[in-house]
């Protein structure tokens, strides 16, 4: 295991198999990540990109959970030092744009990564974790994995990566998940081919390793050329303007005014704490299914 300087991110390189592995190791928070942790993941990806002997990188999480995305224990902490006065108040629009431009640089790097990415997904893939699973070249997911973008319930659907959601999920499923904040099980959308393979949770690790070893046997130069060609096609056909639109949508979409009766997560978290805020959020958005369906 190679040191990363952050115990919450584990990095391993197997030069004999040409496979690297990045493991999110923050189980107490269901492998959610803060800015520092995400930057560590980015540095690991840079090391993989610069290592000519590595063809594949596996992205995974500890304790059977991929990732629940960005750590929302301090929502404004993403825009400054968590102990500073700035972290305790609404950030300016210029600060949002500066931070979000940098944040989405990470996702753009992952989506256009020159080596093959294989995601080993189980437990939960929410928010940014869901985005990383969708951005992977090959994703093996457990059929009971909870997937979705619950942050839309307190930020609205104007998040970044809209192009990617529509391209990878299709417009119908993308609208459903972004406009409702629903969390669904991966097995329910297996027929749509969103992920490379959907299987039982006990098989995810072995199947992800299988795909990684399969790709690792390919010619390294050929794989990189193919990845750049795929990126060119996606940028020209699906992601035109996305590199700017993503952080603009996110920056503007996180600066909402809430009408009376609408759920304000940040305010509720400050009053009741994070755990209770999540409970109150889910209670607010719960709408019972009708007993008789059409």
What is the straight-line distance between the termini?
55 Å
Strand composition percent:
5-15%
What CATH architecture of the largest domain do you see?
Alpha-Beta Complex
Pattern of helices and strands: EEHEHEEHEEHHHEEHHHHH
Number of helices: 11
Reported by name, the CATH topology of the largest domain is: 2-enoyl-CoA Hydratase, Chain A, domain 1
Alpha carbon gyration radius: 19 Å
Structure, described:
The protein is built from 11 helices and 9 strands. It has 2 domains: 9-256, 2-enoyl-CoA Hydratase, Chain A, domain 1 (Alpha-Beta Complex), CATH 3.90.226; 261-294, no CATH class. The longest helix is centred in the middle third of the chain and has 19 residues, at 93-111. The chain has helices at 35-50, 93-111, 128-135, 152-155, 162-169, 171-180, 204-216, 220-237, 242-253, 265-272, 274-285, and strands at 9-14, 19-24, 56-61, 116-121, 124-126, 138-142, 146-148, 183-185, 197-199. The model has no long low-confidence stretch (mean pLDDT 91). It is of the alpha/beta class. The strands form 2 sheets. Strands 1-2-3-4-6-9 form a 6-stranded mixed sheet, sandwiched between helices. Strands 5-7-8 form a 3-stranded mixed sheet.
